[in-house]
Amino acid sequence: MNFSNLPVGRKLWVLVLGLVVVLVTVLGGLLAYLQNLNARTTEHFAMTQTRVALAVGWRGMVALDAQRAVVQMGTVDTSLADRLEQQAKDNTQAISELQQKVESMVATPEGRDLLKSIAALRQTALGTIRQASALRKSGDLEHAAALVNQTLRPQIDAYVQELDKFVQRQEMRRDEVHKAS
Q1: What pTM, to 2 d.p., does this model score?
Q2: Burial, 77: exposed, middle or buried (Cβ in 10 Å; 0-12, 13-18, 19+)?
Q3: CB under 8 Å, gap of 24 or more: what pairs does 97-106 form?
């Protein structure tokens, strides 16, 4: 049986059925592509949202730790100061873990640069806290309080400002991903 020997009506039906098969195949491929794209976009958005939540939590933990340090260095109550020091150590460990988790999630060069800046500011502030704590333990409360007020507070303000920049950057990335989807 030769295609040219078929009646015109059957030729048209074969053509229509061929087009339907091609259309269904193309639409199936397009649907699979769109589902994959949607899954990747949703995953990327969720990861970005997680980074935002972790960064906001990180900032809050830093602000709480800073207030504890200020109160600890300014109080004459040794039991309160010891309790605050222990809480600060626990919080510093939690901040370190959170910082590592956030660092592992950041993939952009801008984000890595901000994290390096944040890490440097954090190390500077922790060094000042150690100095003030040593002064406090030696009984020099006035110099410890002066070190906190004159040096530590500006360092913590700079640290928190960098964290705010990082949070804003992550929120901007989240909004970009949301708009792109």
Answers
A1: 0.71
A2: exposed
A3: 98/54, 98/57, 98/58, 98/61, 99/58, 101/54, 102/51, 102/54, 102/55, 102/58, 105/47, 105/50, 105/51, 105/54, 106/51
